[in-house]
Amino acid sequence: MLSGMSIQKQRKLIIFSFITVPLLLLLTFAYYPALELVRLSFTDWDGISADKTYIGWANYKEVFSNPEIFGVFRNNVAYFVVGIVQNIAAIYFAVVLNGKLKGKNLFRLLLFLPYILNGVAVAFLFGYVYDTTNGSLNLLLGQLGFDQLAETSWLGQSQLVDYSLASISFWRFMGFNMVIYLAALQSIPSDLYEAASIDGANGWQKFIYITLPNIYKIIELNLFLTVTGALEVFDLPFVLTKGGPAGASETFVLKIVETAFQFNNYGLASAMSVVLLLFVIIVLSIQRYLLKGKGE
């Protein structure tokens, strides 16, 4: 077929094919489900019956007026706070491991290794770490002489459970962020640091005036991943706490899943999903506005 066509037509056909196939896949598996989600958010569909009665904005009013739904967002704050600390630690380790450190490749591997592990497996692992009576964390604290802390129920206290779960994300994803920062650091010309050394700049001044401006876009990228990750947490509370104690660790995504599959209210769950999407867009737009023009 192609042999009878001119080179120009073959090129256009190939370009058209490479554009059309991904576009069709995107429309089929991304945009169409998103539009269907929006449509269902205006119905009272239970996920089973064929009846999908239009109820207008009732689901959205329920989301914003019911504190048991929208108020769940406060449990996601811990993941955002720990995510910021995680990025700071990742930058620190990236700077250290980008220098002349003996065995730095081994340290890079050890820090990145948790990211490779399966999320559910990590959750089960830390279930044993945080166990109140036989957990390794309380055992270690007891051996170090912190007897009161050794009796702490890390997943059973509403004040601690979110930060305990978020610290698991810190352990798992810090190495991933470090690798991204490390790649950015290695793209900075060494001539800049040599010139700064000649001018008498110390390590802190090099970091502030050379390193940070050159990795600013990567910091912005990782902040994007941190914000979206904090808003979309699901696996850790689902496996370890089921949203307990008394809903203290229930995240918004966990609430969506519960609304859809436990209470069979797919219309309300769809509205919650749309609200989550809009919330992510708003937060990231604010982030882009605050960081606009910096690092350029």
UniProtKB/TrEMBL annotation:
GO terms for cellular component: plasma membrane. Residues 72-287 form the ABC transmembrane type-1 domain. InterPro entries: ABC_transporter_permease (IPR051393), MetI-like (IPR000515), MetI-like_sf (IPR035906). CDD domains: TM_PBP2 (cd06261). Its main location: membrane. One of its GO terms (biological process) is transmembrane transport. It is found in: Cell membrane. This is Sugar ABC transporter permease. It comes from Paenibacillus nanensis.
